[in-house]
Design brief:
With 98 residues, the protein is of the alpha/beta class. Helix content is 47%, strand content 12%. The protein has 4 helices and 3 strands, in the order βααβαβα. It has helices spanning 19-27, 31-42, 59-73, 85-94; strands at residues 9-13, 47-50, 78-80. The N and C termini lie far apart (28 Å). The model has no long low-confidence stretch (mean pLDDT 87).
Length: 98
């Protein structure tokens, strides 16, 4: 295990307890997500964990928009936990192939 790489997961893109992010998600805006991703990348994150679970939003459309934004504005791989199959299928369709 000593020779295995250490990955730092940026987990700030999560609306829990973040009223500004909750508001932006409700309004369909993504500027805070872009800012959070850039900050975490600058601070040494190896991966970005994406959680956009927010009542009252179209989560399928939102995850598509977030993946589109981060695939062009960040070089980091994305980590997503999507327990609803419909959301997972939508996300996988929009992740760019390398």
């Amino acid at each position: 295990m000593d020779n295995e790489p250490l990955y730092l997961v940026g987990e700030r893109i999560n609306p829990t307890g973040k009223k500004a992010l909750q508001q932006e998600l409700t309004e369909g805006k993504l500027s805070i997500i872009r800012q959070m991703a850039q900050e975490q990348e600058a601070q040494g994150a190896s991966l970005l964990d994406i959680n956009i679970g927010q009542p009252g939003i179209d989560e399928v459309q939102t995850i598509k928009n977030v993946i589109g934004l981060l695939s062009t504005s960040s070089r980091l791989p994305l980590v997503m936990i999507l327990p609803v199959l419909k959301r997972l299928k939508a996300a996988l369709r929009f992740i760019p192939a390398e």
